[in-house]
Amino acid sequence: MMKTGFWAFFKKEWLELVRGGRLLILIAVFVLFGIMNPAIAKLTPWLMEQMADQLAESGLAVSAVTVDAQTSWAQFFKNIPMAALLFIVLFGGCLTSECERGTLIPLLARGLSRRSVIGAKAALLCLVWTTGYWLCFGITFAYNAFLWENGGTARILTAAVFPYLFGLWLIAMLFLLSVLAKTGTAVLAGLAALLACCYAAGMLPGAAGWLPTKLLSAQALSAGQEKASEFARAAAVAAVSGIAGYLGALAGFERRLL
Predict the structure, then answer these.
(1) Per-residue pLDDT tens for 112-123?
(2) Does the global pTM surpass 0.85?
(3) How far is Cα 29 from Cα 44, in angstroms, rounded to an integer?
(4) CB burial string 8-38: b at 16+ within 10 A, e below
(5) List of residues 6+ apart from 62 with CB closer than 8 A
(6) CB 3.0-4.6 Å disulfide test: which of 17, 141, 157, 238 passes with 169?
């Protein structure tokens, strides 16, 4: 019954995602970011040239700007947090909205397990995040290879894994907060508070390397300024707390009154 319920509910969630247009929006956003990364890098010298006269009138001299694949990758790592933010905003109420409307009650009464509800929704979000993230990465990689040379491919691939893991951690935290909060707005507020706490804690000496938010600074790794080992602790903390958060969501939803 659990397996049958899981796949049936997963199919329902998938159809709603497609018919509601959210999947199209997300794919379009990731594709757009994938194209923008090399485009912004390629256009930077031209933009600076166009602004040179205006800046000169202000007493500022503009030197020649050189761009390469690393300039584009810097844009990739800067834009991914914005894509993740939009992703979370679109799915912030994926569980609380159904609890508010009471649409889960008939399904649970017919034998659908609560674990299947959380499992199917989490699997769908992970699938969408994985597809969108690596699609964006693949587009940027292809354009960079065409326009420049993707030097240090292994290093870039390693660096790209860390923001991806951060997205999975965010999904786990989203479900944990979804079983504690009553509205999607409260879930988003809780995530914002959690991230604010992480950034605040990161200001303490030696703490930044242990926090999941460290994974978003992987651009330094792609540029060769840091080593992969410096992200290992943050990745481990994100993995452990993410698994704990997901298990907490399962346990909490079992006890939640609908």
Answers:
(1) 899 999 999 999
(2) yes
(3) 22
(4) ebbeebbeebeeeebbeebeebbeebbebbb
(5) 48, 49, 51, 52, 55, 56
(6) 238
